[in-house]
Design a protein that fits this description.
Elements: H1 20-34, E1 38-39, H2 40-49, H3 56-75, E2 83-85, E3 89-92, H4 100-113, H5 115-119, H6 126-143, E4 148-151, H7 162-173, E5 176-177, H8 180-183, E6 195-198, E7 210-215, H9 230-236, E8 237-238, E9 244-248, H10 255-265, E10 267-270, H11 272-276, H12 288-303
Parallel strand pairs: 7-9, 9-10
Antiparallel strand pairs: 1-3, 2-3, 4-6, 5-8, 6-7
Helix pairs in contact: 1-3, 1-4, 2-3, 4-12, 6-12
Length: 309
């Protein structure tokens, strides 16, 4: 079993002060990454031993809540679901490598819950960002098979001037380029635009459904909810009809928080399980190349995950 997260676990005596997202990720990852059958009582024991809870029945109450939430979320994943949620136990249905996309999303979230573990791998997040963009693109291809899904994201290995990105996007959509120099500066890179999703018609004219999407794989994702900024993008490209925003992240949210964040995005929000629900359409939906790259990124990180003593 994995060690209790160092973030989100606060003492709970008269009310639950534990972050449900942290708790659910700890439970799900313990089963998935250790390929171990674990019971509710196993998790309650750890909460009591770490003095997060004093009362056993109260601890069972929060574990019951997490159990229901995990079961609900995993049902969205279809046959690709890597964890089986029983009444009082959870068991892995496959090795984490055989569910690399699912494992990848949880490991990205663990950077928030286990910050000391995450720091051991340095502060260069370009590789994880590149992988998450590729992961999001492949998920979108499954969900929207007749849409065009085009990556534009800037990385150190794929550096491109913003003017080039704008020109490429405008040409794809048949739109007119605005004044890029006036509305952006030299540090803008891709100006928060990682993926363009659009549904063209045979006539190749403007006025089609367009989503401008930001991929945020780090713990600071909430600070990026306003990106890409449509007030900027509708000036550097003179859209005939206003596009919509979209936002993708590897984290999970409660229904209430999901609604709030949707309002901030003011567009399509793709959280972990909305992305992973591509598994309901096609079980093995990740390309072999991306699966291998994700596993190579995950291997050293999974080996160093902290475990309960």
């Amino acid at each position: 079993m994995l060690a209790l997260p160092s973030v989100g676990m606060r003492k709970s005596k008269d009310k639950h002060n534990v972050d449900l997202e942290s708790l659910c990720d700890w439970i799900e990852g313990s089963v998935l990454f250790d390929s171990e059958v674990l019971s509710k009582s196993d998790f309650v024991d750890v909460l009591l031993e770490n003095e997060i809870y004093e009362d056993q029945d109260f601890a069972y109450e929060i574990i019951d809540n997490a159990w229901r939430e995990i079961r609900r979320r995993l049902n969205w994943c279809g046959a690709s679901n890597p964890v089986d949620v029983l009444d009082r136990r959870m068991r892995p249905t496959q090795d984490w490598r055989d569910s690399s996309g699912h494992s990848f999303c949880i490991a990205l979230a663990y950077a928030k819950w286990y910050p000391n573990w995450a720091r051991a791998f340095g502060s260069d997040f370009n590789a994880q960002g590149d992988l998450f963009e590729a992961f999001t693109k492949e998920a979108l291809h499954i969900h929207f098979p007749d849409w065009e899904i085009h990556r534009t994201g800037w990385t150190r290995t794929h550096a491109s001037r913003l003017s080039n990105v704008v020109e490429e996007v405008a040409n794809r959509l048949g739109e007119t380029i605005g004044d890029v120099d006036l509305w952006t500066d030299s540090t803008a890179h891709e100006a928060g635009l990682d993926i363009v999703c659009y549904r063209p018609f045979e006539d190749n004219r403007v006025g089609v459904p367009v989503f401008l999407l930001q991929c945020a794989s780090g713990g600071n994702w909430e600070s990026k909810l306003k990106t890409p900024d449509l007030d900027i993008w509708t000036k550097i490209i003179l859209f005939a009809a206003a596009p919509k925003k979209a936002f993708a992240m590897p984290f999970s949210l409660s229904d209430t928080d999901f609604i709030r964040k949707c309002n901030l995005v003011n567009g399509m929000l793709l959280d972990r399980y909305r992305l992973l629900s591509a598994g309901r359409i096609k079980t093995d939906w990740l390309s072999a190349e991306l699966r291998d790259n994700i596993i190579a990124w995950l291997e050293p990180r999974i080996k160093l995950l902290p475990h309960a003593v």
